[in-house]
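Blackboard transcription, Thursday session:
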Amino acid sequence: MSTLSAAAEAATDATAVDATAVGHQDVCLLTDLTPERGAAALLTETVDGEPRRTQIALVRTVGDLVLAVQHRDPVTGANVMARGLVGTRLVDGEEVPTLASPLHKQVYDLRTGACLDAAGKEPLPGEGGLRTWPVAVVDGVVRVLLDESAS
Amino acid sequence: MPQDTEPRHLVVIGGGMTAHRLVEALRARDTAGSWRISVYADEPRRPYDRVALTSYFSKRDPEELSLGDDALWHDELVTLHTGTPVTAIDTAARTVTDDLGRVTPYDELVLATGSSAAVPPIPGADLPGVFVYRTIDDVAALRGWVAEREQAGRGASYDRPVRGAVIGGGLLGLEAAGALRALGAQATVIQFGSHLMNAQIDLGGGEALKRLINGMEVGVRVGTATKAMVPSRRTGHVGRLDFTDGTRLDVDVVVLATGIRPRDELARAAGLTVGERGGVVVDDTCATAVPHVWAIGEVACIQGSCVGLVAPGYAMAEIVADRLLGGAATYPGADTATKLKLSGVDVASFGDAFARTERSMEIVWADPVAGVYKKLVMSDDARTLLGGVFVGDASAYASLRPMVGAELPGDPSAYLLPEGTGGAPDLELPESATVCSCNNVSAGEVRAAVTEHACTDIGAVKACTKAGTSCGSCLPLVKKLVGTELERLGISVSTALCEHFALSRAQLYDAVRLAGTRTFSEIVERFGRTGSRGCDICRPVVASILATTAPAHVLEGERASLQDTNDHVMANIQKDGSYSVVPRMAGGEVTPAGLIAIGEVARDYGLYTKITGGQRVDMFGARMEQLPEIWARLIEAGFESGHAYGKSLRTVKSCVGSTWCRFGVQDSVALAVLLELRYRGLRSPHKIKLGVSGCARECAEARGKDVGVIATDNGWNVYVGGNGGFTPRHAQLLAEDLDTDTLIRVIDRFLLYYVRTADRLQRTAPWMEDLEGGLETVRAVVLEDSLGIAADLDAEMDAHVANYVDEWKATLEDPEKLRKFAPFVNAPGESDPDLQYVPVRGQIRPATAEERRAGAVLVAPATLEVRS
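(Written on the board underneath:)
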């Protein structure tokens, strides 16, 4: 369990740093993420000057690219996206990383959050595709960049 | 002109197949509701598929024979009086009187009384043990008699099978003989004519047919007239047949199949004109000479004769429905094409099978060794097809029958050669050619279903056109037409698993098994799209395939990332993202201590509990991070994973069986436990459910399962291909009276054959339907090892049983796997604050969006994590 506590420690530190709004938050180590399996994380964002916790889903691809999207399923409102299946889909000749909702199997483009297959369902009011966050991996640490204007 | 809003009243006498078709057609087209319909049926049941009567022996359930959509009988404009014969018709007053003395007026009357079995004037035809073969009750009585004789024979000092004879070697007689064999009785067919089925096929075909029938261990005596049926002196039951040539045959049961007689007695009494050989005389519109009275089906004498086939009856029903709505349809003449519905014997004839057309020529191909006889009747220039006979191999029947009257491209003899020898050109059916004669569907209508109604598979085409929904013999042809049409539209009839794999699931299974590949990366590179990483369809399929070809824990290494969301946490995700937990209770058996342990876990974690349909307990509302703790307690109490989350064996449901039940004949619980422990964890294309009943009362509802086992006095009967759900199916009999060891091997092979060859998310019933040859193929593979894979399957199942470990126990022992249950990678101690519940009947349920907004009614999520 050593990696887990290390990650938790890193996260705690990051949260502390983040409260001062430096525009990014270190979430975990790259090695805490299993390739092609999502993991949920808590992000503290500032909304109207107030800190707010947002649940995100982190996905690590086989090429060690890390992508972040909202954890909330746009169709049901349940916080489950990190438990969906990861894959790829050919979009305009390009192999695009995807995430499928574990509840009703909508497929989303992990880079843009766009819904590629609605599977016959409508998103809830106020929902659409998945919200995304830019992610950088710095020295093996997964850093989510906060885009305050988007919230 | 003002329209009378009161619907007019149509009375239909008779509740058979043509009556059903008339009601169905009229209700479908009479959108204005201008007719209300009363149907009077003699039999105490809804109209059923009499053509498929013989299948009652394998299916044993009258419901399996029901016709069309039951909703027809719930229509408020339709009243069905079952078990209510009409006793008189008054055509002047326009009323009918039923057997309760009720007098009902009609605006229009349709006679659809059908026929009764003709009983030949042979002395002794009324003896106990002599049966006709016409209704479900006839068949049930025959079945009961044979079973009784068998029992009596077993008790006697001698031990011999029940000896049966069928008088009449036509279509029905051969089906009856097949039925006797299916009941375990001996059967001899007594035919007065020169050869079997002499009304449909020629002498050459009859000879070939006789060899095939003999091959089924059914005796055949042609050119034989029965002089008398003689009672046994001891029992008074039928005991012997005496023939005019002086020979005799000892029998225990006799079935009369010497023809049918139109049931025109009501019509005669009402003064309607009947034909020379019976039947109510009608014109080409099916109208009798008496105004407002029509006749359809076997009772109608149309164009000079009665026809004992369902297709012309359906045509007549359609005509009357059309006429009642102001149409002008007329009878086109009977299509007398026939196909014998007897397993293992292919016989078909169509068109001018006897070459009665002037100057016609016959082209014959016969292979006495294989028992095949085929003949085409052609016009004198050998170009136009007039008719044909097929015995032993009727594969060409479906595509040739609609071509009658049309020119065959190429050399006609090419159509007679065995399949695979090439030669026969693909037939392009004319638009007007009838493809399904039961439902009168043309090739054009089938094509239109694809081109105009956007049907893209055979199921949709069946629903849209009704083609192939009655006897089903045209289905291969319909499939071909649909395939060709889709291809033309550029819609590929793809069996590809998904965009990443061009192979079907079955092909991928074989590829992976033979290549011995063990990782997704390797598999997608070799058999899928290079550089792709799969999707929510193919990744779980690969995980499922590997579970059998290279067994390992579901969360082992790369395999964990392939699992569907439920398999990944080994629990069932619910609508709010919480999970339900189901421990295994093999056979539905649980100790009081076990029940208490489950109750304590559910109480301590605040879980909602419910009994499942599979005889176990489901606990809802567990958060992902709670699953390991919950399982630690369940395992400590002696439970293991119930695989409720997997595409795998779910449960083996059982009744209490012979240990307690006064009716039980075998220990159904013990067998259910044994089977559940044997197949637990077996990953499959879809969920698998089994059931075991301890006697024929079937309290475990085993025939609603993929594999159902029902106890008999001698062992176990095993049924396959049942399911509930969206399209409920009853399982079909695979084998009878098996001992426990044989039964287990049969189920082993059935399950693994399914695992190997079914499509993704395909239950056993649709799988068998798609399988070339259906149940017969399954029987051949499983019981006779026709593919030579039985040893392989046995070894695979032995390995599965030997390698089984409880995947929850193994998970708890591995910290690496437990990491997956952390709710947040950066905050392991936190929980999803959005999981909120409200009370319901003393338990909890997820709060709705409104309740969340209102806030007040919420109860706290279960946080009581007691670990005593």
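Lecturer's comment: Chain A has one helix and eleven strands.
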